[in-house]
Structure prediction request, 302 residues.
Amino acid sequence: MMFYLSLFAMAHAGNSPMPTRSTSTIFSSLLQPSPITISIVNIVLLVILGWLDYITGDYSLIIFYLIPVSLAAWHVSRGAGALFCLLAFITRLTADGAGTSFSFSYSPLHYWNVFVEFVFLLIMSFLVATLKRHLHAERSLASSDPLTGLLNRHAFFESAAHELHRSRQSRQPVSIACIDLNNFKEINNRFGHKTGDSLLVEVADAIRATTRGSDLHARFGSDEFVVLMPDTDSTAALPLLETLHHQLQQAMAHKDWPVGFTIGAVTSLRDLPAIGEFVHKAEELARTAKERETDGIAYVVV
Prediction:
């Protein structure tokens, strides 16, 4: 078993996912098992299957070896799936070597069949990993804005609701900002929609570059962006938004685009509202400031 663990560690090195925010419930952790959990379960399965192979002799259990291989390919990586194909192959050979009482165990045809089974497992591992990758790509396309790559409105509300729930439990402040573009329609009218699209991409890039990895950012409308900042009070949110506003102005000045930005921001220290109400408050601040032709940040703490 230690041999299996060391091989798994070698295969998984360099493919470890970035650490994510720890889940707060046992149910969510079961839905997202860690690579170590998958490896331990798979090793136990291989030991059991090897023992069954030993006592059953010539009967093929290849269909059951698909379980650890598929688990590794789906939950860890394609390389891990290939590794468990190899471990399954070794397990089969070890069981055959130990089962000397079976006359057919050492025939060339038998080992050819074992090799064919190994190739079959490799192919299935590749297919499972490819399916997982395509499903992930489809999910990303469904949740992101096709132009900017930021979250779309639906995906933002879904992710933000989880963040607010976590913040309520940990009693941490949350800040949200609505970024409105001023004079964007004139860009489309004067320079065309292609230039307008380029401008929106510049804005999205500036938002990504200025905000933190834990923040959620989305494009809501044609010229409206939203940023949710978990675990962020006014002392942290306001300097970040001032930096963002400055970066946006610099990006527009660099391209000679006559566009300004109005940011409506709200920090909630306690009694976090529902995400819809939270967004509405930030949008109202930005809309009021925009109607007054104010290019800057309107900020409140509730």
User: Anything to note?
Assistant: The longest helix spans residues 108-143. The chain has a mean pLDDT of 82. Residues 153-301 form a domain with the Alpha-Beta Plaits fold (CATH 3.30.70.270).
